[in-house]
Amino acid sequence: MPTYVVTGANRGLGLEFVRQISQSTDNTLLACVRSSNSDLDDLEKAASNNEKNTHILTCDTGHLDSIKNFVSQAKESLGGKKIDFLLNNAGINSVPHQNSLSIGPEDLDEQIRVNVLGPAKTTEFLLAASLLDAKARIINMTSGLGSMTQSLTITPRKCATYSISKGAVNSLTVQQSGDVREKLGKECVVICMDPGWVKTRMGGEGAVLEPEESIAGMLKCIHGLKEDDNGKFFTYTGKEVPCQSFDGQG
Ligand SMILES: NC(=O)c1ccc[n+]([C@@H]2O[C@H](COP(=O)([O-])OP(=O)(O)OC[C@H]3O[C@@H](n4cnc5c(N)ncnc54)[C@H](OP(=O)(O)O)[C@@H]3O)[C@@H](O)[C@H]2O)c1
């Protein structure tokens, strides 16, 4: 009877995670939204198969107070259960036109705050509240654009501000893979994952993958993670992305 947390659950990939996770009524799910004022109709519909075990909570991953408040609510909703899968999915790509010669300082701040500090603090505060299981799987959503190897193949280069923030997500993952293990023990696993280019608002025109395929692939990979996978970067197909050197010390 696993327990999942999904951030950014009201649309896009987060919504599809909810749809697929809710297929089993054995699952407990904390579906997090930036604001309770968001349109939650699609989310409520997606969770309807497992309404009893789904809790819709507010977590604005760009604001520390909101993340702290979410952790308090999570403790109450879980009633002693621990989190098995933390899916740090919420993210923004608000200035895709910027290149490395036109980065807006405030834009970079915002991308780092939501895309990097968000998953860092969500993980930190849930851990501090003793809500993560010793065998927890923590997934930070990255992008092919966060891979230096892959970005080098794209001419002209794309979405500099976002790409830099996702590169930082990969680095965060490597740091967490060591630090979280020091607290939880060697059975937990932290990875980052590229969902592919998916037809969501962020994916935009030209995206090639249906959310169903991306999420099914990611869930299969996440459910099969082994201790040795700690700190690695995978695509939704389960293939490892070789953009980080990993020496196995995690
Ligand atoms: N789609 C792709 O092709 C693709 C490719 C590579 C990586 N990704 C990554 O996959 C993840 C999901 O992307 P997506 O395609 O589903 O994007 P999306 O369609 O734009 O949805 C983004 C989700 O994140 C939420 N969000 C944004 N800022 C937030 C905040 N401060 N606090 C809480 N929630 C927030 C949004 O909530 P609101 O409705 O309130 O804005 C929405 O639910 C992101 O991390 C993205 O970088 C996507």
From TrEMBL:
Signal peptide: none
Gene Ontology molecular function, alphabetical: oxidoreductase activity, acting on the CH-OH group of donors, NAD or NADP as acceptor
Domain of life: Eukaryota
Sequence similarity: Belongs to the short-chain dehydrogenases/reductases (SDR) family.
Protein name per Swiss-Prot or TrEMBL: NAD(P)-binding protein
